[in-house]
Amino acid sequence: MGDMIKIKLVRSVICTPQKHKVIVRSLGLRKLNQIVEKPDTAGFRGMVKKVPHLLELVEGS
C-alpha cells in the first residue's frame, strides 16, 4: 500500500463559498474534527491547499 495522508476538518464550512464546501465534501469530511485517510497524491494535496484555513494534515501514523 502506498503512502497515506490524514486530513482533519478543523473549521466549519458554514459561511464559506460553495466551491470550498464542495472540496471539503469530496474529501469525505462531514463533521468537525473528523479525520479521513487518503492516498498521498498530488490531487489530494492540491485539494488541501485550496482550503488550508479549513483543513489540517495530521502528523504521525
Overview of this structure, please?
This protein is an alpha+beta fold. The protein has one domain (4-58): Ribosomal protein L30/L7 (Ribosomal Protein L30, Chain: A), CATH 3.30.1390.20. The protein has two helices and three strands. It has helices spanning 18-26, 42-50, and strands at 4-9, 35-39, 55-58. The chain has a three-stranded antiparallel beta sheet, with no helix packed on it. The two termini are 14 Å apart. The relative contact order is 0.34. The model has no long low-confidence stretch (mean pLDDT 95).
Rg calculated over all Cα atoms:
11 Å
Biggest sheet: strand arrangement = 2-1-3
CATH superfamily: Ribosomal protein L30/L7
> Between the first and last Cα atoms, what is the distance in angstroms?
14 Å
What is the typical, i.e. mean, pLDDT? 95
Beta-strand portion reads: 15-25%
Topology:
Blueprint: E1 4-9, H1 18-26, E2 35-39, H2 42-50, E3 55-58
Antiparallel strand pairs: 1-2, 1-3
Concise overview:
The protein has 61 residues and is α+β, with helices and mostly antiparallel strands. The chain has helices at residues 18-26, 42-50; strands spanning 4-9, 35-39, 55-58.
